# Entry
Amino acid sequence: MATNIIDFESARVRAGDHMVRGSAAYGMVRAFAVSARGVVQAARDAHDTSPVVTAALGRLMMGALMTGAMFKQPDELLTYIVKGDGPIRAMTVTANCEGQVKGFPANPYVWVPARPDGKLDVGRAVGKGTLAAVRDLPGFEPYSSRVELVSGEIAEDLTHYFAVSDQIPTSVGLGVLVGRTWDVECAGGFIVQLMPDCIDEVAEQIERNLASVTSVTDLLREGATPTDVLCRILEGLDYQELEAQPVEFYCGCNEQRAARATMALGEDELRDMIAKNETAEVCCHFCGRRHYLSPERLRELLG
Ligand SMILES: [Zn+2]
# Structure
C-alpha cells in the first residue's frame, strides 16, 4: 500500500527564504541554491542602501550563505571581504553553516548609471580590487585567502575564488532584483561545483544547461524555487536533493558585547564618561542596531 507522507517541516521551510543542497551525476557534482528576498530586504532595511548597493551586498551575502553551507563544523564562520576602488569601497559579510548571514557596506549610498541592458551596474559600484575569504573555527588560527576581483559583479569573482583558492571548477549565479520603491522583489542564486572525479560529459552537459539560463532573476521572477533552479541547471544529470534549510539575516550583537566593546576604550575614557554623566552608544556595523550603556552601567563595568 502506498503511503503519502507530507513533510510539514520541509513545506514550512520551503515556503520562506531557504537554501537547498544536493548532488548530481552520482556525486560528481555538488550544488547549492538559495532564495533570499527577505534576507536581502533585511540588509537593505538595516543599512538603508541604494539599489546598486542592495544588489551588491545581497549577492555577496547569498554567496556567503551557500559557501557557509559547505562547512561541516556548526560554529565555523565564513567572512567575505570585498575591497574595491569603486564608490562602495568595501563590503563585509559573515555567514555560518546554519543559514545565518549578516553584512554591511562601507558606503550604502552609491549612485552609478545603469548598464546598457538596464541592469544595476554592480561591477562599476564595486570597481577593481580584491575578494578575501576568512574561515574562522573557534580554537584554531583563522585561515584566510585572497584573490583579485575579476569584474566586481560578485558571482564571477566567487567563481574565480573557488578556481584559484580551492581548485574546484565552479559556476556561480547570483541575482537581486530591486523594484521601483527600492524594495527587493526577488533575490536568489546557485553554486554548482564539479568534484575531482567529474567526467567531461557531465561538465559539458552543465555548460549546455547553463547556456539556456539567461539570468537567475529571470528564473526567480517566473516563480522558480531553489530546487527548480538546480533541476534546470542539472537537467539530465539525475539531481538528488539532500537538504533544505531556512536562511535569515541574523546578527548576534547584544548589550553584553556592546559592553565588552566599550570596555576596550580603556579605564580613563570610561571614568571620563561617568564624570560627565554620559551614556555610551555602541552602533553595530553589521546590523545597524544601537546599544546604550548608562553611566550606572559604565560604573558597574569599571567595578
Ligand atoms: Zn548587530
Q: What stands out?
A: Residues 251, 253, 284, 286-287, 289 surround zinc ion (CB under 6 Å). The chain has two domains: 8-249, 255-302.
